[in-house]
Amino acid sequence: MTPVEVEGLRATYGDFVAVDGIDLRVHQGEMFALLGTNGAGKTTTLETLEGHRRAQEGQVRVMGLDPFAHRRRLAGTVATMLQDSGFAGELTAAETLRMWQRLHPGRQGPADPLAEVDLDHRRDVRVQQLSGGERRRLDLALAISTDPDLLFLDEPTTGLDPESRERTWRVLRDLLERGRSILLTTHYLEEAEALADRIAIMHRGRIAVSGTLAEVVGAHASRIRCELPAVPDKLPLFEGEAALDGRRLTIRTRCLQADLHRLLTWADAEGQTLKQLSATEASLAEIFKDVNS
Ligand SMILES: Nc1ncnc2c1ncn2[C@@H]1O[C@H](COP(=O)(O)OP(=O)(O)OP(=O)(O)O)[C@@H](O)[C@H]1O
After folding, report:
1. 59-93 pLDDT per residue, tens
2. Fewer Cβ in 10 A, N or C end of the chain?
3. Ligand 1 near 165 CB (within 6 A)
4. What phi, psi does 8 have (nearest 5°)?
5. Which region, left, alpha or beta, applies to residue 120 given φ > 0 means left and ψ of -120 to 50 means alpha?
6. Residue 38 Cα, ligand 1 centroid: separation in angstroms?
7. Computed over its alpha carbons, how large is the radius of gyration of the chain?
8. How is the chain split into domains, by residue range?
9. Which residue is closest in CA terms to ligand 1's atom 3?
10. CATH number of this structure's domain 4-217
């Protein structure tokens, strides 16, 4: 069974279209990262998948079921980590965990979920006294406590220091190794690069780009950059687009090898020594910027 299947999902707030006909699938054992600027429609999509909102148009299936109609049934196998879980501040971390496990009967997860997220020393501290990063880790401890098959994580590492982020990544990698599936939203592109099997970049309610990282990067133009010794009278004809800024040459191309060969052959023939020559594939950051421009 495909854990998440979405076809033509559309969600509106009054006249405003927040999600405009998106398709996506999360396969078993993979992490799918949903990226996009503020307001792109990620949380609305996630809320629909979590069963908090009815899909206004389109088909949504979570573990084969309509999540809005079967929210309670899915609670045993699907865990969610929202941006704001709204815990009672006066409960301690350990009491919150016990309450969560009572409300979300599922399988037995790790023996000590608080230790998994490095919060064991904070178990008797009231939630209102935890730092923002510690609350995020408590959210994760709750989500993994019932050993769910599928996890929805909305910005799980926002506000975490680098060490805590590493820790969270280890927890998520461990879940993936055990065949669990994860759909996460994040603003950290390096998080998607480090963890995700597939990504989608949302923009104004639509999915602008999706695929594995290699597919997404491969579909985008690479860049060749160098500095010429003098402004040339003429440049060779490249497959890609060449732009000169004084003596700095940038070529945006989908034919990296052919254009690099052309540039080097031309430089050889003209006796030009190229400085600071680099040839790089597009980064996720550049692709993200292109999508949002
Ligand atoms: N309750 C609401 N009423 C009206 N408009 C809303 C409501 N919730 C969200 N929106 C609008 O829908 C759009 C999508 O919001 P959403 O929260 O899904 O985006 P997002 O990609 O998760 O953003 P962020 O990265 O800031 O969390 C935004 O323009 C937002 O202002």
Report:
1. 999 999 999 999 988 988 999 887 666 677 889 99
2. C
3. no
4. 60, 35
5. alpha
6. 8
7. 24
8. 4-217, 220-292
9. 13
10. 3.40.50.300
Instruction: Give the chain's length.
Output: 293
Q: Does the Cβ of 44 fall within 6 Å of ligand 1? A: yes
Give just the sign of the alpha carbon dihedral 85, 86, 87, 90: positive
For ligand 1, say whether the CB of 3 is within 6 Å of any of its atoms. no
Give percent helix, percent strand, percent coil of the chain, each to the nearest 5.
35, 30, 35
- Residues 195, 200, 201, 203, CA torsion sign: negative
Residue with the smallest CA separation from ligand 1 atom 25 is: 38
Give this complex's ipTM: 0.96
- DSSP conformation letters of 183-208: EEE-S-HHHHHHH-SEEEEEETTEEE
3-state secondary structure of 250: strand
